[in-house]
Amino acid sequence: MKVLLVDDEQHVREAIKLLVDWSTLGISEIMEADNGEDAMRIIERDKPEIVVTDMRMPLRDGVELLAWMQEREYPGRRIVVSGHDDFHLVRSTMKYGGQDYLLKPVDPEQLQEALVKAVASWEQESQERKRTQKRNIEMNQLKPVYWDKMFSSLVSEPATYGAVRETLEEEFGLGGARQAQVVILSMDTMSRSVMDKYTRNRDLLFFTVTNICNEFLREDPGERIRARADDRERENNRDRESYRDRESYRDRESYRVKENYRGFACRYWNSDHDVLIVLWDRLSEVRELLARIQQAFLSTLKCRFDLGIGTVEAFPNGLGTSYAAARAALKHRNILSRASWCHEYDPNERHPAGKLSLFEFEESFRLAVLSGNGAEIGMAVGRWLEEVSRLPVVTLEHMELWRHEFGAMLERWAKDWGIGAGIGDSTLHGEEERPNAPANSVPLGEDGSLSLEQWGREWSERLSRVAAKQGAERGRERNVMGEIAKYIEQNYNRELTLQDIANQFYLSREYISRRFKQEFGENLSDFLGRIRIEKAKLLLGNPQLRIADVAEMVGISDEKYFSKVFKKLEGVSPNQYRKSGGAE
């Protein structure tokens, strides 16, 4: 902590330095000035926490020094030590924030007490400043999220406006708004380079985009600068001694520098890939505004974004209607070719998906995947894209329909092939490799239009991965069926049921029965019976063994059933087989 002693008499300054135990007060540096003008320079440069000053001094006296500190709202504590018991000086001391007025010669106890009080006051206020600063930092961190949620709520639930009207008027100056318009900035068709750059930090992308937009939605900064200059010029003509006037000026200055908006951009909390631009002033200039914002995107992010422009509606009740119109403008735009980046709502513009259905191509896709051949998969995808290219218009509505069909197709395959559910959950374009990508992102070319080439490449890769998974599962199943066959061959001589085998291999009876026949061309029960009869034929060569013994040794406890099975497979009974010497 630092203290500044201001007195034109050096011996007074020396006396004050000797009268106080500065170290116990936590004061480590003592500075000196012999007039008010030098004191001002020291205060500006070193910012001492405590100023002890005389009142009668050359150049600038103590009253002028205190007034100067008060005018600049200097937070340092002020103690006056004066040789004049003058009411005017005492009044000026209190008026300009002095804490104590001590008379010369200085009483050591009074000086010590005044300094202890000044130090305590400074430390208390310092702690409060730190707490306030911390709260302000926390508030500033939370503010963007707060505004995002507030404006999102206004669009989805306009009735919430009544509860936040005063807050919005104070922050954005929209209390007089009568009409409004919603613009949607769509992230689902942003360029791949930007998508890849921010794929693991989508929050940063939203922060960057909304900040760029809000730079253009704030009041012209030049106007604010000119307003402040005009106020300062008027302030120079006022009576500087008028405390009330200065307070009034400060209030106006604060009002002047408050930022005013013609609209506000925020992240829409009801969507994973939309930025909202809510406009309420100068609505006739929307096109020019959006053109400037797009140019800023191009300069900063090296890309543009599709913008859906909603209808002008009453504020705030019409915000939801305007949003729906902006969403429809984006949904129905033609992404097969790039005509514009701004899309206005047209209620007559609809492009139904028509008769082109992905299901018509399912069999060719399925056979290509089952072949496991990348070239076959590529040709199947190519035939589909050729049909897409013949369409006059492709919209996001088309893409959503095909995405749904694609997912349903894959889920059906998963069930039929037993390769696990969920392979149809990803979008058309393999976004499982980009976990934070928009759920309905579209493969775009450099001009922002739909890239059939990129779509075909991504779709072929996706289907190739499904083919690899199906092939791996088929190989695994073949191995499992082989293990089951081996298990039967090793355990044919005991009672063995399909349920026993299912329990052994943790598979369902139905699955084992179906897959075993697909793999070996015969039912599992026939396979087991054939193994048992082959073993029985060997045992029948031993005349010491009865037919019942042979049956039991191959896992069949019922002699009659054994004979029936044997005759069915060999054409003769076990006894006839033995007599004919068939075992030899």
Query: What's the helix count?
Result: 22
The percent of residues in helical segments reads: 55-70%
Strand numbers in spatial order across the main sheet:
2-1-3-4-5
Global mean pLDDT:
82
Structural class: alpha/beta
Portion of residues in beta strands equals 5-15%
The best one-word shape is elongated
Largest sheet: 5 strands, parallel
Number of beta strands: 10
Q: What is the CA-CA span between the terminal residues?
A: 114 Å
What's the number of structural domains?
Answer: 4
Q: What is the C-alpha radius of gyration, as a whole number of Å?
A: 44 Å
Unreliable residue stretches: 221-229, 231-258, 426-440
Could you give the topology of this structure?
Blueprint: E1 2-6, H1 10-19, E2 29-33, H2 36-46, E3 50-53, H3 62-71, E4 77-82, H4 87-95, E5 98-103, H5 108-156, H6 161-172, E6 179-186, H7 192-197, H8 202-217, H9 221-236, H10 243-257, E7 263-267, E8 274-279, H11 286-301, E9 306-314, H12 319-331, E10 342-344, H13 362-371, H14 374-389, H15 396-417, H16 452-491, H17 498-505, H18 509-520, H19 524-539, H20 547-553, H21 559-570, H22 574-579
Parallel strand pairs: 1-2, 1-3, 3-4, 4-5, 9-10
Antiparallel strand pairs: 6-8, 6-9, 7-8
Domain HTH araC/xylS-type: 482-580
Domain Response regulatory: 2-119
GO molecular function: DNA-binding transcription factor activity; sequence-specific DNA binding
